[in-house]
Structures are given as structure tokens and as C-alpha cells.
Amino acid sequence: MKLFTRSEDPNASLGIAERSAYLIGNAGTALINTVVASFIMFYYTDVLILNAGIIGTILLVSRMLDGVTDIIMGFIVDRTHSKHGNARVWIIRTCIPFAISGILLITVPSGATDLIKYVYVFITYNLFNSIFLTALYVPYNAMVVNITSNPYERGLLGIFAMGGAVVGTLAVQSTIDSATKSLGGGTDAWQKVIAVYALCGLIAHLICFFFTRERTGIAKKMSGSGHKVDTRLELKALFSNKYWLISVGTVFLALFSTSMLGGSGMYFAKGVLGDTAYYAQFANAMAITQMIVLFVSFVFIKRFGKRNTMMAGLGLISLACLVQGFAGGNLTVIIGCSIVKGIGGGLAAGGLYGLVADTIDYGEWKTGMKSEGVGMAAVTFATKVSQGLSIVLIGWIIQIGQYDALAAVQSQRAVSAINIAFNFVPMLCCALACLLLWFYKLDRIFPQIQKELTERRLQAAN
Question: What is the reported pLDDT for 338?
């Protein structure tokens, strides 16, 4: 295995350094995004003592704007031209404001009235998610299409990207509880810890920018680079792509399941197991297992295909959630189920990026229009909307269950509500994702599609 990529050929084998730089970029995003996905609701309800139902509603309204900005950013990427490529250049443009917006998100003015706090949450949450996370993450996801046109390399890049997400998530969930408690557990403690995550994330994004390259400009000639692209035709081509729609639905359900597990985990540890310190034990059991399986998932993908590997993984998660739902407060069973979920998560995540990237090539083969910016924006959209809606749903569920942030022991109604959020909603989502994948048949015909596309691109270049 070579260390560096020395070829500009879009089909070249990538070096470990470039793959690792792409991984580090996603780890940098995950350092702050994990706080938002898994801990921001807990911070608002249990540290700031804000109303979970109101916070959930604020975040739901925010997601309506967020989905629009993802699509807009996809169009911007498709129409960007720079010496650094059309996607990668946005990493250097947005990494600093992204880090700052992450810090602002957690610095709710403690002395203000509740109304001002809710307004501040709305403004900073949208600034982070709808503006700067969008401007960073949509181009990052589009890079997997532009760095290489080799389907095997794309699959590996997708695995490395998901590996980065797991590394960043693991770093946060392993340290945030103990770090904030060691600093007093109040708002100042949270702000200091998040500032450290933001700085580390900024460094990671700079590494990603300087050690990766875009190589598939040759494909742009075929899709009309440098010419005005009809937005209506681009959207029509994308939404007539049945496999793209299936892949986006699958990604959304899989990520929504993960977000529900992460976002309700602290409530489960506190309300069911009795101490937030238990969160790191079962969350890390899942994350570490997922990371190990993720980096060997290419073996299963190569043997059984992306679709079948992902179906197996999602099925394991669904089964583990079902068993876990009847385990009560048995920590041993919870950790065992978390390991099974980690195995399933590693298998499912290994094919996620490559699944969507393949459907974009299918769309180019079918319509002659390559829309990597808007097409891969779907991954960003699914990531952020799944996170946002999961936070909203968790807030509503625990509010209906009459969860009391100040109570030493939760009522049986509150415990049941937490179990629904932590176990049964993720189980249902993974089962539905498996059902969607049943109709995904692209793996069978993709080699021939790639062969024909390569011939077309070479003709366009000449």
C-alpha cells in the first residue's frame, strides 16, 4: 500500500495519506456535530433547565430552513470553479466560521430571561446548522465523487469518511461527561470543553484541505463545465433517478436511527441506569466495535455488494435494539447489545457514501448530467435533518413522558418514554431502511455502467 497519491488519473489508486486526510476532515466535523447531535438537548434541558418541548419545537422549525440551504449549497458547489476544485475550496473558506459558530451555539447568556435564551438558541442553532455546517459539509461529501472516479476507491473513501465520524464521535462521548464534570459541570465548563473541540476540529479541516486533491475534472467537460446549467433540468434528472431516491431514504433512516441512539443515550444512562457516567461505557462499546468493523467492511462489500452488506448491518441493529428494549437496567445486556449494534453499524456505514456516489454515476449514465454537488448534498441533508428531527422527537417524547431533569429517580412513565426513544424508534427505522434496500438493484449493473461512463469521458476529453 503506497503512502502518497502521485497520479492525477481519476482512476488511480489513492495513497493512505490522502485517504487519512479525508478521514481527519470528517473527524473534525464530528467533534462539534456530535455535541449538537447527542448532547445539545441534554445541555439545554439539564444544564440550562430549559423546556424540552419548546426546544424541540425550535429545532423542528430550524430544520425547515436547514433543508433548503443544503440544496442551495449543492447548486453552488456544482457551479463553483477554482484552482482547488469546485468542492474542496469550500473547506478552507468555511472551516474558521464553522468553529466559531460551534462555540456560539453553547454560549447561551445565563443571566438572560428564558425568552431571550430561546431566541438565542434559534439564531445560533440556525447559524451553525443552516449556514456554516451546510457550507462545509455539502462540499466535503461532494469531494468523494471528485477525488476519484474509481468505484472501489470511492467505497474506501466512504469507509474512511465514516471512520472519521466514528473517531470524532468516540472522542467526544468518551470525554465530554468527565471533562465538564471536572470543571464544575456548569455552563462555563461546557463552553471551555466545546472550545477545545472546535479548535481541534479547525486543525483537522486544514489537514483535510491541504492533503487531498480533486481529479475528476474530466467528467465536468461532459456535463458542461463552464456553461450555464439549467437548474430545473438538473433537479428533474436527479429526482427521476430511482436509485438515488432509494439511497437517500436509506441513508436518512439509518442516520436517524443513529441520532436517536446518540441523542437519547444520556437520558437513558441518567433515567434508566441511574448515572450519566454509564453513557460512555455502552456508547463506547458500540463506537469502538463500529470503528473496527468499519475498516474491514470493504471485505464484505467486495464479496456481497453494498446493498446486501448494509441490509445485514441494519438488521443487526434492529435486532439488538429489540433485545435492549426489554433489558431494563441490566448494564451487561446493554453493553452486549451495544457491541452488536456496533457490528451492524460498521457494516451499514461502510457502504453509505459509496451507495449514494454510485447513484450519481447512474444518473450521469442515464441522463448525461453529473450533479455531484446537489446529489451528495442529500447525504448532508439526511445527516442534519435526521439529527435535528431526532432531537425534536426526543424532546417531545420525554416531555410527554414527564421527564424531570431535577429528579433523582424518574417515574415509570418517564422511563418508558426514554425506552421508546432509545430502543424502539431506532429499531423501527432500521427495519424500514432494510425494506427500502430490498428495491435497490444497482449493484448488479454498476460495473457495466462504469465501463460505459469511462468510454464516454475519454471521448469527451478528446
Answer: 96
pLDDT for 179 equals 94
What is the widest separation between alpha-carbon atoms in the chain? 72
- How far is CA 448 from each of CA 222, 352, 369, 444, 453, rounded to the nearest angstrom? 19, 21, 18, 9, 9
Q: What are the CA-CA distances from residue 367 to residues 76, 237, 242 (Å)? A: 21, 7, 13
Evaluate if residue 387 carries a pLDDT over 80: no
In angstroms, the CA 117 to CA 430 distance is 35
Q: What is the pLDDT of residues 35-68, one digit of tens each?
A: 887 788 889 988 899 988 888 788 777 776 776 7
Q: What CA–CA distances, in Å, run from 439 to 242, 249, 349, 375?
A: 10, 12, 19, 20
Nearest-Å Rg of the Cα atoms of the chain is 21
| Residue 359 to residue 307: CA distance in whole angstroms | 12
What are the pLDDT digits (tens) for 203-251? 999 999 999 998 875 444 444 444 455 677 777 878 888 999 999 999 9
Nearest by Cα to 201 from 33, 353, 388: 33
120: cell is 438565542
Q: CA 269 → CA 77, 283, 367, 385, 410, distances in Å? A: 41, 10, 50, 25, 12
Number of residues written out for the chain = 462
Res 226: pLDDT: 46
- In the chain, count H helices and then E strands: 20, 0
Q: Tell me the CA distances in angstroms from 239 to 215, 248, 255, 381, 434, one per residue in order.
A: 26, 11, 21, 15, 21
296: how many CB neighbours lie within 10 A of its CB?
Answer: 12
